[in-house]
Design brief:
Layout: H1 2-16, H2 26-36, H3 45-56, E1 61-63, E2 78-80, H4 81-87, H5 92-105, E3 109-113, H6 119-125, E4 132-137, H7 140-152, E5 158-162, H8 165-176, E6 181-184, H9 190-201, E7 209-213, H10 219-230, E8 236-239, E9 243-247, E10 255-258
Parallel strand pairs: 3-4, 3-6, 4-5, 6-7, 8-10
Antiparallel strand pairs: 1-2, 7-9, 8-9
Length: about 260
């Protein structure tokens, strides 16, 4: 039944979602044409996707410690790495979209809440080797796999912090001092999502971009997303169904968009 409701949500999204011709915002129109629709392949894509395929073929079993809402598909603590790679890691097109955004806006101070196997983390870190990426992961065994992936691809601008977000977030923000880009992908609960949003908001600036994963994961995540949209600091939001983008640019008119992707 839950799966049916989720499919109905997605169907409603597809009906409501606009393409570039239906968007009456020069800023969002430019994002769609220059970044969302950009099909150019960057140098890092092949290397990252080879790591993904290696994870999908892995027969290793690990014990996963979840601090958030857990996985919809994987219910036991003992999980095959290949199953995590197939169900919990962001699909290729979304990872590459994040890469293009970071590359385009030249973000330097990047925070990720929820490392998982590190595939998405690499998409955040590899647009610019001089950028500083801090990624927080609650599960030690998952973090060990991610760290190994970073080493294999020789990506050296990621600091991986192991621990509960509640305990590690504040210090991580202080290390970066300001937040250009934040990817929220570690706790799909309303209270936690809003708590981490408000904590990160203190270090945001006019040109920051916050990205929330799985904004339609559940009713409470949708409620959290609605509350974030209404925040006075937020100007433009973009709903891609599986991700939500939040901009704080004061020069923009406050608007919420649902965009096809």
């Amino acid at each position: 039944m839950k799966k049916l409701f989720f499919l109905l949500k997605y169907f409603r999204y597809r009906i409501k979602a606009l393409d570039k011709h239906g968007v009456h915002s020069p800023f969002v129109f430019h994002l769609i044409t220059e970044i969302f629709e950009n099909k150019n392949s960057f140098y890092a894509f092949n290397a990252i996707e080879k790591l993904r395929q290696k994870m999908i073929l892995s027969s290793e079993i690990i014990v996963v410690e979840d601090f958030g809402a857990g996985s919809k598909n994987l219910k036991t603590k003992k999980r095959a790495v290949k199953d995590i790679a197939k169900t919990s890691v962001k699909p290729t097109k979304y990872g590459q979209l994040l890469f293009r955004l970071i590359h385009y806006f030249e973000f330097k101070n990047i925070l990720e809440l929820g490392t998982s196997l590190g595939i998405t983390t690499l998409y955040l870190a590899m647009p610019d080797s001089n950028a500083k990426v801090i990624s927080i992961e609650g599960c030690p065994q998952t973090a060990a796999l991610a760290k190994n992936n970073f080493s294999q691809i020789k990506c050296k601008n990621i600091e991986l912090i192991i621990g509960n977000f509640d305990e590690k977030l504040s210090a991580s923000i202080n290390k970066l001092q300001k937040l250009d880009f934040v990817f929220f992908d570690g706790n799909h609960r309303k209270e936690a999502t809003l708590k981490y949003f408000n904590e990160c908001l203190k270090a945001a600036h006019n040109d920051s971009l916050f990205v929330f994963d799985d904004i339609h994961w559940s009713a409470e995540m949708e409620n959290a997303w609605e509350m974030i949209q209404k925040n006075n600091s937020v100007t433009v939001t973009i709903d891609l169904f599986f991700m939500g983008f939040v901009f704080f640019r004061k020069e923009l008119t406050k608007q919420d968009f649902i965009v096809k992707f």
